[in-house]
Fold this sequence. Notes:
The protein has about 160 residues and is mostly helical. It contains six helices and no strands. It has helices at about 5-25, 40-65, 70-100, 105-110, 115-120, 125-150.
Amino acid sequence: MKKFAIEIKWGIRYTFCYLAWAILEKSLGIYGENMSFYMLSSLLFYLFAALIYTLALKEKKTHYFNGSMDWKQGCATGLYMTIVIALLMPLTQASLHELIAPEFFENMIKASKDKTSAATYFNLKSYIIQSIFFALSIGMVISAIVAYFVQTKKTK
């Protein structure tokens, strides 16, 4: 477990940042009267997510790989962190939609043109499944990009 301590720590930090972002979105009315900004707000979070991954990979490079990390090691670190995040997503989504913004699904359905298909898409079970797969896919993309920039550059 010590081998993955940094990934677990940053996966948990990511989760708390995700929930803090949701609280910010709620306070800005994004789950209500400003719902038209929901997609933009969600996309902006992934810039912040890239920062979290960068800090995690830099810490792993410094404290585990003694300052020398190649791209594969960076990707593996990002993958393990992504797995932690994906495992925490059901609890994260339940917290978000049950405690922080219980009105979210109702408002999204109201804002949709096709209420029937929206009801099957905008519900807790669907969002938990979507968030797991999205966390895995976007996490790997962010990991690969960040690993490229954090890797130890080879000198000729």
